[in-house]
Amino acid sequence: MQYASRTVQERSGERFAADQRGGPSRPTRTKRRGKRKSPLWARLLVIFGAVLMVGSTATIVGMRVLVAAATSSVTQQDLLGSGGTHGKHASINGAKNILLVGVDTRVGNSAMGSRSDSIIILHVPAGHDQGDLVSIPRDTWVSIPAYDNGKQKYAGGHDKINAAFEFGSRGLTGPAAGKHGFELLEKTIQGLPGMSGLTFDAGAIVDFSGFTDVVNALGGVTLCVDEKTTSIHVGFTKSGREAEPYYFKDGVPTSRVPGVTPVVYNPGCQYMVGWRALDYVRQRDKLANGDGDYGRQRHQQQFVKALASKIMSGETLTNYSKLTKVLNTVGKAMTIDPGNFSIEDWIFAMKGIGGNGLITIKTNDGNYSTDYVNGQSIQTLNPTSMQLLESVKDDTVDSFIAAHTDWVAKS
């Protein structure tokens, strides 16, 4: 079935041309089919990046006030299942692993449930002076274990890793869906070759749409586009009305909608407001270099760096009102399980991680290698990628990086 595009009312009092230049706002929109939740980078940056940087701003604003702003709006929920630490790590000291999940909620299609749109393991070495970000491609072909969420049973089988969250949450809604989807994804990762014994000390589910507001609270960010990127989500008619530019079948863009021009991000550094920045980093289908999910991961990582730089800039850190607004906005976009520790414990323990302390490591060295199973395209992790994941479990990521310097993404 192909889905027709839907338009929204013309922006009032603003010129379409201004928006194309990255102007201050976007037209009011009706709810769009296939609403997605966040890729993961941003929440990770904030709670385990920017929010964790709160400690370094103590001489500028009150530490306790900032901690309150960073935590008061965050939803806390039990997400970690039997694969969590559950008392194994009684101290906040030592190496820590945090599972970060962005969720794709398919509105109006309860049978499909929710699939994880982004999966990132944040590894914090024992020194707590850096954070190693390892993304697992959503199309990675894996064995998903059998699971009973109390409402429906999943018999187990092979599928893309992003299906694990959906299978765990089937038949459930609200917090229960998040908890069981997260737990089955966690078990699936722990079932990868060589990953037995991996535990997670904390976890988070993040709302993609919420980070549009974070970028806007910061006044926008500057991103350097490295390849021509065509949006499959946002386009405009000649009259300036917004519309989806592509027809879709099974979530894949098939053909252009007549009369609708998609937004195109051309190479070069450019200022972007919230919706443009988030739309840009969501794209993987129409990238000029054909690098798909790896290209999207790279753009997400670039976004993390740009967002961290903006948060750590003098214009933000010295502006108490702006900083607290940013932290509150971040909190509203996240659901966190802090494990055995409070969020405040995490903030103070990780305050040594600055914007330059976030290191992104590419699985498969960033190379997009497609295979096919039953007619669907999949990804497989090569042996070196499995060594990378084992180094996360064993807290030997520094040694892996030293031996594979080209796997570290450039800032």
Automatic annotation (TrEMBL):
Keywords: Membrane, Transmembrane, Transmembrane helix
Entry's transmembrane regions: 40-67
Compositionally biased region (Basic and acidic residues): 8-18
Signal peptide: none
A Pfam family assignment: LytR_cpsA_psr
Keyword Transferase: no
UniProt region (Disordered), positions on chain: 1-35
Keyword Transmembrane included in the entry's annotation: yes
Domain Cell envelope-related transcriptional attenuator residues, every copy: 115-312
Similarity field: Belongs to the LytR/CpsA/Psr (LCP) family.
Name this polypeptide is given: Cell envelope-related transcriptional attenuator domain-containing protein
Naturally occurring in which organism (per UniProt): Rugosimonospora africana
Lineage of origin: Bacteria, Bacillati, Actinomycetota, Actinomycetes, Micromonosporales
